């Protein structure tokens, strides 16, 4: 059974940093792209960053240059380092993997950035 568990969210002041973690279980994920999404109140869920099986990365424009996605395949874990946080980064952040054409999600972790 595939399971994703996010952690590391919290309340931080603008300009601060947080590091999110996503622990994956149920199979080996090193062969798959993984991603972080976020959903702010009243808005649709949006893609934040992706990391491919060999480590190449992509970022949405709002977070480019501030966020860094990485993975530790030995530990089946994906990270999102978030620096220079802004109030508009406030959202629930979700870890995602697509396996066999099906999306799997974690429960999400709340990130709140105060001004």
Q: How are the SSEs ordered, and which strands pair?
A:
Blueprint: E1 3-7, E2 10-13, E3 18-25, E4 34-39, E5 46-51, E6 57-59, E7 67-72, E8 77-82, E9 91-99, E10 102-105, E11 109-114
Parallel strand pairs: 2-11
Antiparallel strand pairs: 1-3, 3-8, 4-5, 4-9, 5-6, 7-8, 9-10, 9-11
Cα-atom radius of gyration: 13 Å
Contiguous runs where pLDDT drops below 50 for at least 5 residues: none
What's the rounded overall pLDDT mean?
96
Helicity range of the residues? under 10%
Describe the structure.
With 115 residues, the chain is an all-beta fold. 0% of the residues lie in helices and 55% in strands. It has strands spanning 3-7, 10-13, 18-25, 34-39, 46-51, 57-59, 67-72, 77-82, 91-99, 102-105, 109-114. A hairpin with a 5-residue loop joins strand 5 and strand 6.
Please tag this protein with its features.
single chain, 115 residues, mainly beta, 7-stranded mixed sheet, 4-stranded antiparallel sheet
Question: Can you summarize this structure?
Answer:
By secondary structure, this protein is an all-beta fold.
């Amino acid at each position: 059974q595939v399971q994703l568990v996010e952690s590391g969210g919290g309340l931080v002041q603008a300009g601060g940093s947080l590091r999110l973690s996503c622990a994956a279980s149920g199979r080996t994920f090193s062969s798959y792209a993984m991603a972080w999404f976020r959903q702010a109140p009243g808005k649709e869920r949006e893609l934040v960053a992706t990391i491919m099986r060999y480590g190449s990365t992509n970022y949405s424009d709002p977070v480019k240059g501030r966020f860094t996605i990485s993975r530790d395949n030995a530990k089946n874990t994906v990270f999102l380092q978030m620096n220079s946080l802004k109030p508009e980064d406030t959202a629930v952040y979700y870890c995602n993997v697509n396996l066999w054409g099906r999306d799997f999600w974690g429960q999400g972790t709340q990130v709140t950035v105060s001004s």
